[in-house]
Amino acid sequence: MAAKLILIRHSAVQANTEKRYTGSRSDPSLTAEGRKQAEDLAQRISRGQNVDRVLASPLARAHETAEKIAQEKTLAVDYDPRLKEIDFGRWDGKTFSEIPPADKSYITQWVEEPLTFRFPEGEAISAFLERTNAVAKDCINSPDRTICVVTHGGNVRAMICYCLGIDFSHQHAFAVPPGTVVFLETEHMPGRLISLEPPAIGS
Fold it and tell me: How many CA atoms are closer than 13 Å to the CA of 69, on its beta-carbon side?
């Protein structure tokens, strides 16, 4: 059983700065700042952590971040499509203000009934949680002692909630900007949040 999970939100992309919904349909590369963040993350993990396995979303922003970390640890990256960000459907690539007026009613539904909500032409939150929680469960039950998971903001928050045994409705209690590192103890469940560290470079 894994004793520790290290959850990392990928480093910065331009869409983060512009506050755009960037889901599984978008595949931007890291910005210059994001590449610096990834290098810093690799150094931080290399200095202080024994890592047995690096697991990542296959989307470019997570892929590029994970590769930097794995190189420092001389490990290969295992890519799992279940770790992709949620599919925002026709909102993907848009800011909140760019959501079509006809879709405004969906916002209320998203706020009031998040667990039954499906993004227009996109993914249901319940389906997103099912696949993300399945990865968390697999990691916890793995014989690897320490697993580093490089993924997206929504996935990190979902995995924190799953590991701590709290409802996903509390996800926004955890701020995870790009480059954030979360350390969880998972040898005994529910797990324990050890630390949530913001990025050392940029935000």
Answer: 34
Tell me which residue range forms the domain holding 75. Answer: 4-197
Residues in the chain: 203
In the chain, where do the E strands start and end? 4-9, 53-56, 77-79, 146-151, 181-185, 192-197
- Does residue 80 lie in a domain region? yes
Backbone phi, psi, residue 74, to 5°? 50, 50
Q: Please give the Cα distance from 173 to 72 (Å, whole number).
A: 31
Flag whether 202 is in a domain: no
33-90 pLDDT per residue, tens: 999 999 999 999 998 789 999 999 999 999 999 999 999 999 999 999 999 999 999 9
Evaluate whether residue 28 is within a structural domain. Answer: yes
What are 173-199's pLDDT values in tens digits?
Answer: 999 999 999 999 999 999 999 999 998
**CATH code, domain carrying 188:** 3.40.50.1240
> Is 157 inside a domain boundary?
yes
